[in-house]
Structures are given as C-alpha cells and as structure tokens.
Specification:
Elements lengths: L6 H13 L2 E6 L4 E14 L4 H11 L5 E5 L4 H4 L15 E13 L2 E6 L4 H14 L12 E2 L3 H16 L5 E11 L6 H12 L3 E7 L2 E7 L2 E6 L2 E5 L1 E6 L4 H13 L1 H19 L8 E10 L3 E11 L6 H8 L7 E2 L1 H11 L10 E5 L5 E4 L4 E5 L4 E10 L5 H19 L2
Antiparallel strand pairs: 1-2, 1-8, 2-4, 3-4, 3-16, 4-5, 6-7, 7-15, 7-19, 8-9, 9-18, 10-11, 10-17, 11-14, 12-14, 13-14, 16-17, 18-19
Helix pairs in contact: 1-4, 2-9
C-alpha cells in the first residue's frame, strides 16, 4: 500500500498520537521500522518478583506482539541489590504492553502484521509516515541543568579509579544526569522525530506508556534472538565525527588504534561471553566480530558482536537473569561495578541504560540499549538526559567530564536549534 496524505489524516494523527497512551516505534533508519499503537493489555512492574511477573505476562500473551521497556533497576531483583538515589523520573522496573495494531514499514510501503486495516488506521499510518518525513521540527527550547558539579564528578571518578587500583573492579560505567523541570511536551512524537533526525541510529525508538515517553537515538544492540541464536553487540569506544573527510578518517583510525578503547572493549566482550555462557548450548559462544569501527551521524563507535545458541525451551526471564543489565553499562566484574555505581552516582538510572524492544509471536526478540536518550514523565513534568562513559585506571577525570558534556551537548544543542 502506498502513501496518501490529506488534511483528514493529519487531524487523526494529531488527535490519536498526542492522546494515545501506548505507542511504540522501532526504527532501524535503513527504511525498515515497526509501529505499534492501541493497547490490548499492559503491565507496570514494581514488585519484588519482577522477573516472574514479566514472564507470566509473556506466557499469558504468547503468540502476540509484546512491547517492552526494561529498567536498569531490574538488577535489584536479579542480584539482590538496591537503588536509593534520587529518583525524579519514577520509572517502574518494567513496562510491557500488547498492541492491537502493529504495522511494518519498508520505506513508504507498509503492511498491517497485526490489527485492523480500517480506514481510520490507514489514515493514521499514512499521516505518521508523512510526519516522520518532515524536513524541520520545532526546537525543544529547554535549558538543562547538570545534576553533579565538576568537582564532585572528579572526586567520584578518582575514587572509582582507587577501587580499580585496589583490584575491586577493572572498569565501571559512570553516569551523570542532565535534567529539566516544569516541562510540558505538547507533541512528544515531534521530539522523537527531531532526535532521530540528529542521530539516525540503528536502534532508534519512541516508547510511550501512560505518563512515560522515551526518545532514544541508540546505536547499541542489547540482545537479538532469531530462532535459537542470540546475539549481543556491546559498544565501547567513541570518537566524534570529523568536520571534513580527512579529519573524519583520522578520527576513525585514532579510535581503531587507541589502546585504552581496545582494552575497554575486550573487557566487555569477555563479560558478555561469560553472561551468555550461562544460558548457551555447550561450546556455542563465539565472538563474531571484535572491535569493528562503525560510523553514525554524530560519532564513530567501536563495536563487537558475540553470539550463542540456546535450547528451544529457554525462557525470556532466564535470559534476563543471565545477561541483564548489559555489561557495557555496568563494568566488570558486573556486581561489584553496580554496587559502586549506586554509591557514586547522583541519580537513579531507571530506564536509562535499560532496554526497549519487542517480542514477536514466535518468541524471537530484538532489544536495544537505552543510551543517547531523553526520558520524560508528563505527570512530574520532568525531562532527563543522562550520559555516561567508561572509567578505567587510565581515565582522566577532567577529560571524562568534558567528553560527557560534549556527548550530551551535541544532542541538546541540536534539539534546541
């Protein structure tokens, strides 16, 4: 079916997508995407037995498309940890919802793979496509504050380096939060479309459930499952894009040959291999690619891919117990790193460094890592943009602070333009 657009479709778009409480858009930025809207059933998980609640919901809706947001704080049930830091976003441990309507895009062609292909839904999808292809979206016009001062950041990084010196950890992902209060987003989808225009990331996502909206320009894959093969592609290693072709190529070569970045990447590869080995068929864990250099709209990244084979009867909750949270957002060893993250960070991560994705009717799934993201609670009128980086023994606290500010400024400055 081809794209048609008119004023009636625009009105439907404005009414439904601004008012609709459950929407997920998973965009690979290669012409392929999935749009889900209108909830059949949903679950907000805040209980101590969160993994059981998640699995029970999945079992209840077997054979349907299930869209999922997993908070970083699921770690508390997996490893008996806790989160007591400032929590302004109030994101639950997980949100799952079953969509009545699921639409698969291939460029401007689309098909309903679930739901009703009625006139109203067709106009809605057509208007969504039209809006997603706009050249210019309104500026955000929001001023963000940093949750932590430069001096406190430096102090915490140096304390983490002391933990590394003592052999308690090898590496830790340390994050800070940029935030804005009293924010009202009248059209959240335009915020996503603008962010996606900036990042053009392969695991880009808009996820809305009740008061929560997540706008993610993520380049990172947490887990993908096709039949009985699971893959993970952790990112460790970043360089900004150059101002011209020569500088851009120089940045890529610099990243590829950086010993610090290589060491970080290999440590996380080993961690992911260990995680996957807990659920994998014997001798099936392998590194498909080590330290590949990939270029995105705003950055170059060093990415590795690890895979394994699993038995048919493996449960989604078993996979989470073995692999969540992803090692690229914790450090190594994972439990020690998470304890120190809680001690030194100034905010509760919630969905940031968690994961968003979907489970297909056949049990296959695809989940990103929630980074390069804005997170919004409409009830609290609170907008958050966390950012982090890997701390190793060779890290310079001042340089790490500057790198985090460069990362977040690159997004926020363009969002406000």
């Amino acid at each position: 079916m081809f794209l048609v657009y008119n004023s009636t479709a625009r009105k439907i778009y404005l009414h439904l997508f601004v008012q609709e409480k459950y929407v997920t858009y998973l965009n690979s930025n290669n012409g392929k995407a999935i749009l889900a809207f209108e909830s059949v059933d949903s679950l907000f998980v805040n209980s101590a037995n969160s993994l059981d609640a998640i699995q029970n919901f999945i079992d209840k809706h077997k054979g349907k498309y299930i869209f999922v947001a997993l908070s970083y704080d699921l770690k508390n049930d997996i490893e008996l940890l806790h989160s007591k830091n400032l929590n302004k976003l109030k994101f639950p441990k997980a949100i799952l919802w079953v969509a009545k309507n699921v639409v698969k895009f291939n460029e401007d062609l689309y098909e309903f793979i679930s739901g009703e292909e009625c006139l109203e839904n067709i106009q809605l999808v057509q208007s969504f496509l039209k809006e997603s292809n706009q050249k210019k979206y309104p500026p955000l016009n929001i001023e963000f504050k940093n949750r932590i001062s430069f001096d406190d950041y430096v102090k915490n990084v140096n304390q983490l380096k002391e933990e590394i010196q003592q052999g308690n950890i090898y590496e830790v992902n340390y994050c800070q939060e940029f935030y804005a209060e009293n924010v009202e987003l009248t059209n959240p989808l335009d915020v996503y479309f603008k962010l996606n225009q900036i990042t053009k990331a392969p695991y880009s996502t808009y996820f809305r459930a009740e008061e929560f909206s997540i706008f993610s320009g993520s380049p990172e894959l947490y887990l993908n499952k096709k039949e009985n093969v699971i893959k993970s592609s952790p990112i460790k290693g970043t360089r900004k894009r150059g101002k011209n072709r020569e500088e851009d190529e120089r940045m890529k070569v610099e990243l590829k040959n950086d010993l610090k970045e290589q060491a970080e990447n290999v440590m996380i590869v080993d961690l992911v291999r260990n995680d996957l080995s807990r659920i994998a068929q014997k001798k099936s864990v392998k590194v498909d690619e080590l330290m590949g250099i990939y270029s995105f709209e705003t950055v170059h990244q060093m990415i590795s891919t690890i895979s394994c084979r699993v038995d048919d009867e493996i449960l989604f909750s078993d996979i989470l117990r073995a692999t969540f949270p992803m090692g690229s957002m914790t450090g190594a060893p994972k439990i020690s790193a998470m304890l120190l993250i809680e001690k030194h960070e100034a905010f509760q991560r919630g969905i940031y460094s968690g994961s968003i994705g979907y489970i297909s009717p056949n049990g296959d799934f695809d989940f990103n890592v929630v980074i390069r993201s804005l997170i919004y609670n409409a009830k609290e009128k609170y907008l958050s943009c966390p950012v982090g980086g890997a701390i190793t023994i060779n890290a310079n606290a001042g340089s790490e602070f500057k790198e985090c500010n460069v990362k977040v400024k690159g997004i926020l400055d363009q969002m406000n333009a």
